[in-house]
Amino acid sequence: MAKKSKPPVREVLADDFELEVDGQAYRPHVGEVVRFRGRATVGQLATALDLQAVNSMDLTDPDQARHVADRMREVVAGLAASIVSWTWTDDTDAPYPSPPDVAVLRRLSTEEIGWLTGAQAGGRRAGADGADGDPKDS
């Protein structure tokens, strides 16, 4: 009889997160780690894909703005449910609570949320352990 097993928590280094401010590139999360349970769900991926249309939306239109806000709330809730722990710090180098809840995640930049969404989906992360760039399993 087969033994039941669950996938391990995935550990993803945030060394490749880059934020540009006034033409200057910053890497605020070098050496910091995010640990995810499982992989992104179909619903989480669908929401993330839905958000890719934001650039073509008219956010002055109340219906479209509401649509984007609703999708962002779904993304943040999905991340809060998926992140087991992390070592991220804020702009003053103070650690965020671990694991982050929705309130903590809502304080992040859209770029940080985008990076976390990609990492959650199992996307390749430059600088992560593993010869092929895939996140390190721990």
How many angstroms does the end-to-end distance come to? 26 Å
Number of strands: 6
Q: Report strand %.
A: 5-15%
Q: Tell the overall outline.
A: globular
Radius of gyration: 16 Å
- State the helix count: 4
Q: Uncertain spans, ≥5 residues at pLDDT below 50?
A: 124-138
Question: Roughly how much helix do the residues carry, as a percent range?
Answer: 25-40%
Largest sheet: 4 strands, antiparallel
- Report the order of strands and helices: EEEEHHEHHE
Strand order of the largest sheet: 5-4-1-6
Mean pLDDT: 85
Helix/strand/pairing category: alpha+beta
Structure description:
There is one protein chain. Helix 1 (42-51) runs antiparallel to helix 2 and helix 2 packs across helix 4. The protein has helices at residues 42-51, 62-82, 102-105, 110-120; strands at 10-13, 19-21, 24-26, 33-36, 83-86, 136-137. The protein has 138 residues and is α+β, with helices and mostly antiparallel strands. Mean pLDDT is 85; it is low at 124-138. The radius of gyration is 16 Å and the shape is globular. It is 33% helix and 14% strand.
Itemize the secondary structure elements and their pairings:
Layout: E1 10-13, E2 19-21, E3 24-26, E4 33-36, H1 42-51, H2 62-82, E5 83-86, H3 102-105, H4 110-120, E6 136-137
Antiparallel strand pairs: 1-4, 1-6, 2-3, 4-5
Helix pairs in contact: 1-2, 2-4
